[in-house]
Write a structure and sequence with these properties.
This protein has 176 residues and is an alpha/beta fold. It has one domain: Isochorismatase-like (Rossmann fold, 3-Layer(aba) Sandwich). The chain is built from 7 helices and 6 strands; from the N terminus they run βαααβαβαβαβαβ. A 6-stranded parallel β-sheet has the order 3-2-1-4-5-6, sandwiched between helices. Strand 5, helix 7 and strand 6 form a beta-alpha-beta unit. Helix 6 packs parallel to helix 7. The two termini are 18 Å apart.
Length: 176
């Protein structure tokens, strides 16, 4: 069985920057260990990068979440320092300008995923970008096993984290 391991938005602004939290900081080492384990097992690794631009305050998201974050090429946009050395190729980085990435599903994974493929996700934030990507992937790949590793995710709050996990379970995404 082929496996694709997707690390969602483990960027500085979500860990120690403008939207960071101690909960997010608490999973970085475990995520790094999991990436190394998955690479040893032959899994394909993909890192998504939440990416905004200088016009962020004028966007709908910027109006609803008026905290500048993950502006392209800023320090906060970069992966956490512990994860940066784990990127083996620029092709593993996927820029996504919104919560879920249609580009990831439609362009990058389209010819790589079949019913024999497993997709596992982890990262930040469970209740925004992780759930959005998991549900998009479910829509694109209805017969593929999709798993979210709940221990390697954190949300904007534990209540929102748990609500997102419940939503994903309802949509036949395995939560471990």
């Amino acid at each position: 069985m082929k496996k694709i391991f997707i690390v969602v938005d483990m960027q500085k602004d979500f860990i120690s920057g403008s939207l960071g939290s101690t909960d997010a900081q608490g999973i970085v080492d475990k995520v790094a260990e999991k990436i190394e384990e998955e690479r040893k097992n032959g899994s394909e690794i993909i890192f998504t990068l939440d990416t905004h631009y200088e016009n962020y305050p004028e966007t709908l998201e910027g109006k609803k979440l008026p905290v500048s974050h993950c502006v392209e090429n800023t320090d906060g946009w970069k992966l956490d320092e512990k994860l940066q050395p784990l990127v083996k190729d620029e092709k593993e980085l996927v820029i996504k300008p919104t919560f879920g990435s249609v580009h990831l599903a439609e362009d990058i994974l389209k010819n790589k995923v079949d019913s024999e493929t497993e997709i596992e996700l982890c990262g930040l934030c469970t209740d925004i970008c992780v759930v959005s990507n998991a549900l998009l992937l479910r829509a694109f790949f209805p017969n593929t096993r999709i798993t979210v590793n709940s221990e390697l995710c954190r949300g904007t709050s534990m209540e929102n984290h748990n609500a997102a996990l419940t939503t994903m379970k309802c949509c036949h995404i395995d939560v471990i």
